[in-house]
Amino acid sequence: MKKSIFLAAAGICFISSCTVFQHPTKTQADLDRDRKECERFVVDNPDPNKTCKYGADSCVTCEAVKRCLEERKGWKRVRN
Fold this sequence. Notes:
Layout: H1 2-16, E1 20-22, H2 28-44, H3 58-71, E2 76-79
Antiparallel strand pairs: 1-2
Helix pairs in contact: 1-2, 1-3, 2-3
């Protein structure tokens, strides 16, 4: 239950942050899929250096998801 609430909050945070990503070969559907995979990755692999709890670290989580999209999925952040 906590994970689903956390993923929903991460998605809202991601959408509301006005971040735009581009990839030379991927579509918007690919971005949506990659974003969901990154959200799950961030939830399943929390940063041990962060002391925030679920729900309290939405901005930290958003940055972690964005970093995952860039580093793991090859997206480039063009506006934040």
